Amino acid sequence: MRRRLLAAAAVAVVAVPALIDTVPATADRAHPSVVSDDPVDWTPHVLDGTVWSLALVGDTVVVGGAFTKVADSSRRQTYERKNIFAFGLNDGAIRTFAPQVDGAVYSLAAGPDHSVYMGGAFKTVNGAQQRGLARMSLRDNTRYGSFNARVNWGDIRALVSRGERLYAGGTFSAVNGVQRLGLVRLNGETGSVDQGFDARLAGPGLKRVRVEHFDVSPDGNRLIAVGAFLRSNGADRTQIAQFDVGGSGAGLVNWYTDAFKPTCMKGFDTYLRQVKFSPDGSYVVVAATGRASSAQKLCDSAARFEVRATGRLNPTWVQRTGGDSLYAVAITGPAVYLGGHQRWFDNPYGTDGNGPGPGAVSRPGIGAVSPGTGKALEWNPTRSRGVGVRTFLVTPDGLLVGSDTDQLGREFHGRIGMFPLR
Fold first, then answer.
1. Which of 117, 265, 343, 405 could be a cystine partner for 384, CB 3.0 to 4.6 Å?
2. Would you indicate the residue range of the signal peptide (predicted)?
3. Could you tell me the pTM of the whole model?
4. What's the order of all strands across the beta sheet hosting 50-57?
């Protein structure tokens, strides 16, 4: 295990320092190398439930999910923390940040003035009505009453903040009474809906439209969304669409693929779970579930697509697990990290329940692939599989992992762990 001199500070709960921070870019940061397969030993532990989201605000990691208890790195002290808490990036010390949130926090985004935006399935925050969206101060736990955004029903599953703009995706059909199916852009200060931004998502024949996840390019000009939809702005876009968001609206880009038109197992209105831009914005990688039934479909896979191409695209490469779900992706330059409850990578001919196919390599629960080829890298720390990794957070010093299990890198790490740069 890796130890640092400041690890002892994790025993105490400390207040958030009064830092003046800028809002970081939401795209994953570039790293000079693949991270270590040995997690640091000073991160805290979430003792129940699932970690769904992570965000970095200054030197503070904010953790969202569906849980009730956390412990310091030594597991000697346990604290009540319902659905959200924070800890120090450099020492793991649990912060005093503990707002009262009555539902799961599925998404987080750094805000200005040491604040964080949170989205999820909650209806109240600190006793006040605030459905699905809120902005919180990390200094004193208070809710920004000036940020007055509310969804009509459903939840918020993804958030990206960029300057004065806040993008939100989920299962809603209206925000602040303004109709927006699954995707909206808000004023980051007031929460008011950007009237000029409307992706006009539609899903003829689907039970409901939802954006499962989205990302914004490093330069802020492109947005790519995945989820349960079939059309956008009247054009055919099955489960994935790319928009020009550099101006006042949501301009649908002449960029599309038919790769996700074939259906997976019955019951999946979408089998895409996460999408991320590369640090240079040149490509995206999509993580998928779906229970693969053939090597020709992209169920239970990760796939790379080039961003600057136009027209109908095929994936540059596909990484197949052979029937196990992938839920999370992070891209750092040297590696594409993938998390789920997979057992194998490089497994196009394996099937769920029948073992690996020719050429498959063991990568239980977490692994990394080459950005150029999509083939498995040697990095293989392992984790207890559970349902799967739900979120990655790339920091300047390493890779944070949030999930629903407590074994990472062959060590106890309660639902949170960090792999440092070598």
1. 405
2. 1-20
3. 0.94
4. 50-57, 60-66, 84-88
The Cα angle at residue 146 between residues 144 and 147, in degrees rounded to 5: 75
Are 394 and 402 within 8 A, CB to CB? no
Percent composition of the chain: helix, strand, coil (DSSP 3-state, to 5): 0, 40, 55
Amino acid (one-letter) located at 183:
L
Backbone angles phi, psi at 324, to 5 degrees: -110, 145
Concatenated DSSP letters of 302-345: EEEEESS--EEE--SEEEE-SS--EEEEEE-SS-EEEEES-SEE
pLDDT of residue 20 exceeding 60, the answer is no
Sorting pLDDT into bands at 50, 70 and 90, what band is 15? very low
The CA-based dihedral angle spanning residues 242, 245, 247, 252, taken in that order and rounded to the nearest 10 degrees: 20
405 Cβ contact partners less than 8 Å away, ≥ 6 residues apart: 365, 383, 384, 385, 386, 415
CATH number at residue 270: 2.130.10.10
Please say if the pLDDT value at position 236 is more than 50: yes
Q: List pLDDT tens digits, range 63-79.
A: 999 999 999 999 999 99
Structure tokens at 347: 């497994």
- Residue 347 structural domain: 5-420
What is the Cα–Cα distance from 259 to 165, expressed in whole angstroms? 31
Q: Give the per-residue pLDDT at 350.
A: 85
Average pLDDT, the chain: 93
- Residues 6+ away with beta carbon under 8 Å from 136: 97, 99, 115, 116, 117, 118, 125, 142, 143, 144
Which residues are within 8 A (CB) of 274 and not within 5 positions of it... i.e. 6 or more apart?
A: 212, 213, 226, 286, 287, 327, 328, 329
Q: How far apart are CA 133 and CA 150, in angstroms?
A: 6
Q: Residue 275, Cα to own-chain centre: how many angstroms?
A: 8
Map tokens 């169920």 to a residue. Answer: 299
Least confident of 22-26, 253-257, 373-377: 22-26
Q: Is 93 helix (H, G, I), strand (E, B) or coil?
A: coil
How many domains does the chain divide into? Answer: 1
Please tell me the predicted confidence (pLDDT) of residue 26. 53
Instruction: Report the alpha-carbon distance of residue 257 to residue 161 in Å, rounded.
Output: 27
